[in-house]
Structure formats: structure tokens, C-alpha cells
């Protein structure tokens, strides 16, 4: 198993960052050409998802939709005021797993991998692990 | 690792298709009796989930609930008009992983595996990978 | 592969139960010090998620937010009246996967693993599988 911890810097409160190339680089560095790569976000107000990375309006609309789905509610008690971001993190999820074949990610034509910031801007981490087999 | 790409045809705009048997067939074909099977949807307006496959009203209600959760918003900009479907895809997620023991899927009594179409009808693909160990 | 089935008892209709220690115990019992652990919930109105386990208001707010996101809708037809719970199960997801390094879970500082009950109280099961590599 090859494990790489990558620093990710976000610049907005809510942001979708295309990290597909970071994952491709880690897979190349691992030397593993057949297996799987897991992306893990070790944070509770961030996430990782796979979605279209062609039209920049897609990530923009996803963030807008998530604000509609998980708004700030007056009944929340958590003192940091970011319960809506914790909920987005659990809705989207903190990990993804993609197949590796012939050294390449087995993604669909329109799929890219996105780091999801819901309580930024911040310095974040991403754990990329590549497994043979 | 055994990898099989399966064609899935959907017939409605929103649809939950029970694909449990397709996964069972692929596991049998793989010859792997102990390990794990991953389901991966290489699309950005579809998904895969595990939920009840006894009462047909459950998938019907899930689709209805998701329309309530991620409706079409007038503020969306993505030109294809399917941003609400992209959001459903990220909420439900494009992969699932199930244990294989003694050649069988280790699912709960009421669990089935569902291909989720959110922007159909279309010809879709499902990638099934079975890993030993 | 080491597989352990754990009984989980919930005490409320909606509840987030911190199961991080159960996962740590299973990893120790497996004797596997490097690899991955998968948590799988074999139910259709429950789930598993990773989120903050420091402030008890976070799980309380997550449950409140999920009730807002997936309320009981009058249009639901499923006779058991728990379609909103089935939807929460698919939104959060029935599995999580965490890396194991030097015998420890590779979680972030604030991350814990939560069993999510959306239709309790009930006797539930959790399947913990640990894989080397």
C-alpha cells in the first residue's frame, strides 16, 4: 500500500477544487498500475466527490444546491456555527474509491475528483492511498 | 482483480433499477468466493445505492424524496438544465462496496443494490470489480 | 480478511452512536496493523458516517438537519411510514472505509465513526471487516 498526504489550500468559504491531477500524480508515484486508489479527507466540514469537471457552472451549481439543501438553521446549538457544513460533509462523504487500470484512473468521460470545502478558506489535507490487486 | 463492464438501459427520467442479480452474476463469473465487490457508476447524473428491494413503493418514495431535496432551482446556470441531477449524483454517490463470503454478497435481509438514474432515459454503464482477500 | 459482526442497540428514534472504539477493538483483534477497515450497516433505515465526536451538539445538530432535509412527506406510499428514514440511509450511505497504519485508524483529529439510527429504537448489526495490504 502506497500512502501520500497532500496539502490542499482552499480560498473561499464554499469551494469545489478539482484534484484529479493530484490523484493521477500519486498513482504514478506509487508505481502501481493495477488496483485501486482511495481518497480520504480527514476533516469534518469538508468532503470529496466525483462529478463533472468540464463546465465550471457544474461545481458552482452544486455548491448553490448544497446551500439550499443544508442551510444555516436557527435551532442549531454547536457553538462554532458551522453545523450546516458538518451536515454537508456527511451527505457528500469523506472518501471515494476509484479503480486503477494500466496505470490510469478508471473514471467516466465527464468525471473528475473534487475536494469539497464547506467551511473555508483553510489549509486542508487529503490522504491518497493506492492498493495493488 | 476481476473487472466487468455492464450495459444498463434506463427507461424513465428518474429511475431506480435493481441490479443485485447483475452483481451476483459477476461475482460468480469472477470465481472469487471471499473478498469484496465494488460497484462504480462512470456517470455524473447517475449513482448507485443500497436500499430495500422488497416493497416497490420504497424506490418510488426515494425518487420522490430526492426530487423534494434537490429540485430544479432557477439560479442554476449549467446550460444542460440538469444541475439538480448532478447534485443527486454527489449526494447518493457513484460507488458502493459489498463483502463477498462463501461466494455470496454479504447484504442485509432487506438490502438490494440499485442503479440510480437521475437524467434519463439513457444507455448507461456499470463497472463491477471483484477483489480477493 | 478478518470479519466481525457486532450487535448495536439504539435507544431513540433518531440517534448517532459513536462506534469508533468498537472499530478500534476489532482492528486490534484482527492482528492486522497495515491495511483498511470497512464498516458496513446491513439495514435500510440506518447508516454509518464519519464526523466530529468532540462536541455532543454536532451529532444532535446533524440529526436535526437531516430531519429538515428529509421530512415525512404526505405523498409517500410505503406502508411502514418510514420512507424518510430510507432516504436518509441512502443519503448518508451504509458503508465507510478507513485506513489502518501501525495498528491505528488513520482518522483526522476531530473525526469519529458514527452508527446512524433513523428508525429506532432497535437491535442493529454492524459488520466490520479488516483487510491487510
List the helices and strands and how they pair.
Three copies of one chain form a homotrimer.
Chain A: E1 2-9, E2 15-18, H1 20-30, E3 35-40, E4 46-52, H2 57-69, H3 83-92, E5 95-101, E6 104-105, E7 111-117, E8 123-132
Antiparallel strand pairs in A: 1-8, 2-7, 3-5, 3-8, 4-7, 5-6
Structural commentary:
The structure is a homotrimer of 133-residue chains. The first copy, chain A, has 3 helices and 8 strands, in the order ββαββααββββ. With 133 residues, chain A is an alpha+beta fold. In chain A, strand 5 (95-101) and strand 6 form a beta hairpin. The radius of gyration of chain A is 15 Å and the shape is elongated. Chains in contact: A-B, A-C, B-C. Chains A and B meet through strand 4, helix 2 and strand 5 of A and helix 3 and strand 8 of B.
What structural keywords apply?
133 residues; homotrimer; 3 helices; alpha+beta; Jelly Rolls; 26% helix
- Unreliable stretches of chain A: none
Greatest contact pair?
A-B, 33 and 34 residues
* CATH-level-2 architecture of chain A: Sandwich
Give the distance, in angstroms, between the N- and C-terminal Cα atoms of chain A.
Answer: 10 Å
Q: How many structural units, i.e. domains of chain A?
A: 1
Instruction: State the name of the first-level CATH class of chain A.
Output: Mainly Beta
Helix and strand sequence of chain A: EEHEEHHEEEE
Amino acid at each position: 500500500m502506497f500512502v501520500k498526504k497532500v496539502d490542499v489550500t482552499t480560498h473561499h468559504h464554499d469551494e469545489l477544487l478539482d484534484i484529479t491531477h493530484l490523484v493521477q500524480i500519486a498513482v504514478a508515484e506509487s508505481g502501481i498500475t493495477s488496483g485501486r486508489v482511495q481518497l480520504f479527507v480527514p476533516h469534518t466540514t469538508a468532503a470529496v466527490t466525483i462529478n463533472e469537471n468540464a463546465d465550471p457552472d457544474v461545481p458552482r451549481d452544486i455548491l448553490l444546491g448544497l446551500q439550499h439543501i443544508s442551510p444555516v438553521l436557527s435551532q442549531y446549538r454547536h457553538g462554532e456555527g458551522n453545523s450546516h457544513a458538518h451536515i454537508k460533509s456527511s451527505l457528500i462523504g469523506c472518501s471515494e474509491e476509484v479503480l486503477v487500470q494500466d496505470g490510469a484512473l478508471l473514471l467516466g468521460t465527464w468525471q473528475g475528483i473534487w475536494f469539497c470545502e464547506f467551511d473555508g478558506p483553510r489549509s486542508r489535507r487529503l490522504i491518497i492511498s493506492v492498493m495493488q490487486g
